[in-house]
Design a protein that fits this description.
This protein is mostly helical. It has 2 domains: about 10-140; about 155-300, no CATH class. It has 9 helices and no strands. It has helices at about 10-15, 25-60, 65-90, 100-120, 125-140, 155-195, 205-240, 245-265, 275-300. It is globular and about 80 Å long. The two termini are about 35 Å apart. About 40% of the residues are buried.
């Protein structure tokens, strides 16, 4: 095995390089792949500004960062495209062989379509959901190569504790969303049936409950997003490139994706009232199943 390739066999990208090639060719390909990974991670950093905009828009209803986030997003798409072109030229094919490569290509296409739609129709409301999606897909795609282990056990445990606290806080916010949703459905039914003289009259008005659903839903999504980011980085360092195959990680990503769909339907499709309440209950149910699955799978993962 050539020196440039030695020690890198745990990376799916580098394993794809034929070992029969001359050492100089392998060295050149390794450098191209490493350069493309640098551009991909730079794109993820720029996409992070879009994620920050989405968080502020959901929690504080602040849209002031959008022009800056959109500009950074455009530059990120360019760097993302450069990374894909370099890998394609190195392999002589489209980079779609691994889950990481597929996520990278899909994230780039979603980002490109968003920019075209935003330029043509100024449909900026979708950015609240698409910015986090593209960021997370690109972040995961940039984790194809292994990294150094934790410097010490203390950092490892502290990182894991932060993840757990964020996820539990996110679940608490989703629980509040679900409770407000149940009250909304009860209050809506009481008003339609014109019932009076019951304890249900003390429930808040529908507008107040709908606003509570919106605020707690946004806060829950922000907390879960941060929790997922901490989780995948922890798993990446802990399990190297094998982390994406663990069912607990996949369950967590699916729950986050469902929560993202809820946010999209709320902010872009205008889902409010009964539809939003039912969706919030569905997301909470999925979150509970995800937590139960993680607890149930933990003994198997520790063996």
């Amino acid at each position: 095995m050539p020196p440039a390739y030695a020690g890198c066999s745990s990376s799916p990208q580098l394993r794809a390089i034929p070992q029969s090639l001359p050492a100089k060719v392998v060295t050149s390909l390794v450098r191209v792949i490493e350069t493309s990974l640098f551009w991909l991670r730079a794109a993820a950093c720029l996409y992070a500004l879009g994620l920050l905009h989405s968080m502020l828009a959901l929690v504080r209803r602040n849209q002031n960062l959008y022009p800056v986030a959109l500009g950074a997003f455009r530059v990120g798409v360019v760097l993302h495209g450069v990374a894909l072109v370099e890998v394609a030229m190195a392999y002589g094919r489209l980079p779609l062989d691994t889950s990481f490569e597929t996520l990278s290509v899909c994230g780039f296409l979603i980002a490109l379509v968003f920019l075209i739609v935003e330029w043509r129709y100024h449909f900026a409301s979708t950015a609240v959901a698409l910015f986090p999606l593209v960021f997370l897909m690109t972040l995961v795609a940039s984790m194809e190569q292994p990294v150094a282990a934790w410097p010490n056990v203390g950092v490892r445990d502290a990182w894991l504790v932060v993840h757990i606290v964020l996820v539990l806080a996110g679940f608490a916010a989703l629980l509040l969303t679900a409770v407000a949703s149940i009250f909304y459905l009860i209050q809506e039914r009481r008003l339609k049936q014109k019932r009076s003289g019951t304890l249900l009259e003390k429930l808040p008005p529908l507008a107040t409950l709908d606003n509570l659903i919106s605020v707690s839903m946004g806060l829950g999504f922000v907390l879960l997003t941060l929790g997922v980011i901490f989780a995948i980085i922890w798993a990446w360092v802990e399990f190297q490139t094998r982390w994406i195959t663990y069912p607990s990680v996949q369950f967590s990503l699916f729950t986050w994706l469902l929560c993202l769909v809820m946010i999209f339907l709320r902010t872009s499709a205008g889902w409010r009232g009964r539809k939003a309440a039912v969706m919030a209950l569905a997301v909470l149910g999925c979150a509970a199943l995800t937590w139960a699955a993680q607890v149930g799978l933990r003994p198997a993962l520790e063996r």
